[in-house]
Design brief:
Strand content: under 5%
Number of strands: 2
Largest sheet: 2 strands, antiparallel
Distance between the termini: 60 Å
Number of helices: 7
């Protein structure tokens, strides 16, 4: 910044802001909280070293990442960003499971509405497991047998039991 207003880092550290201050372009004086968090978590000296080692065109992204990580560390000192990422990955996994259950329920409903193409008690061979099964005209029992019915108890629902989760993709 030079002469007018010192950058947020120089203001916080109570030093004179020179025109070649490495912090000035990334920590403006109107947002002192941003540098305060980064300084508290990483330290001004470490941040200065990190920025000096990077090419100029990557410094803004690095500062943005440092601010995000420092904010996450303030919220969760143990896990920081990893805690947020883990939480989001678990959410994605649960949503994928719910989608698989919903797709299975749709398939079961479609099977109930289609007229049976095979005669009663005709045997078919399951190509994946080489097991035979009997197709019955009463397809209404399929969702209950598979335990995907929406009226079933939540303790038996696959979406509620994380140990049964792996069977959907096995």
């Amino acid at each position: 910044m030079g002469g007018n207003s010192p950058c947020a880092s120089c203001k916080l550290l109570r030093r004179r802001c020179t025109k070649d201050c490495i912090f000035a372009p990334y920590f403006p004086s109107d947002d002192p909280h941003k540098f305060a968090i980064v300084h508290k978590v990483f330290g001004a000296s470490n941040v200065s070293k990190m920025l000096q080692e990077l090419p100029v065109h990557q410094r803004a992204d690095a500062v943005s990442s440092l601010v995000y990580e420092a904010t996450a560390r303030m919220r969760d000192p143990v896990y920081g960003c990893v805690g947020a990422i883990s939480y989001l990955q678990n959410q994605v996994s649960q949503l994928q499971m719910q989608l698989a259950v919903a797709q299975t329920e749709i398939l079961c409903i479609q099977m109930q509405q289609e007229p049976p193409t095979l005669t009663c008690d005709q045997q078919m061979v399951d190509a994946d497991h080489n097991k035979t099964f009997v197709v019955n005209e009463d397809l209404a029992a399929v969702p209950q047998m598979m335990n995907f019915g929406s009226s079933s108890s939540s303790s038996g629902n696959i979406a509620q039991d994380p140990l049964k989760r792996e069977f959907l993709w096995a």
